[in-house]
Amino acid sequence: MKKLLRIDASLRTEGSHSRALSNFFETIWKKANPAGSIIYRDLTKQQIPHLQNKTVEAFHVPEENWTAENKQAISLSNELIAELKSVDELLISSPLYNLNVPSTLKAYFDHITRSGHTFEVNTDGSYKGLLDMESVYLITTKGESYKGTSMEPLDFQEPYLKVICGFLGMKIKNIFSLEATAHLDILEKNIALAQQEIKKTLKIN
Q1: Less Cβ around it within 10 Å: N or C end of the chain?
Q2: Number of folded domains in the chain?
Q3: 74-106 residue pLDDT tens
Q4: What is the tally of helices (H) and strands (E) in the chain?
């Protein structure tokens, strides 16, 4: 039985294109995995705080030496990492805010990017991801058209998500990119194309 972790990062709980496409993905995923289960983490309703120094310090303290303060500071990171390791597949939906991912999603990755738990440093100084997950799906939305236009170099959203997932050892199976959400004349067509790609990827007609 497959288990999916769905993470939504849009600040909007209503009228969000990334959430709507994520809802569509969930519906199709359930059809493809009728016995599967889904864990849902909404980064707007369940906000992840930005890293504090006491948390970073606790990251570098061996578990056997944790103080009560260390345990409290690191508890959220432990929870998020355990949750991520408990699933088979991951879905992240993210709008583009100011050329990058929402700060809530960046905070999430800051808490789970942890040496000895989700990555390690090799003897030669290189890095190895420890999250052996084969099926990561990304849903990205943008108000304007970026791919193949002069705006493309300004998109730090998808490049960041690709790199950080790869750094942690997670393999991206597909990115469903919905662009030009601010342009109603082509939005419906773009939504249909994204939905079609989701069905194709999950092998549901």
Answers
A1: C
A2: 1
A3: 999 999 999 999 999 999 999 999 999 999 999
A4: 6, 7
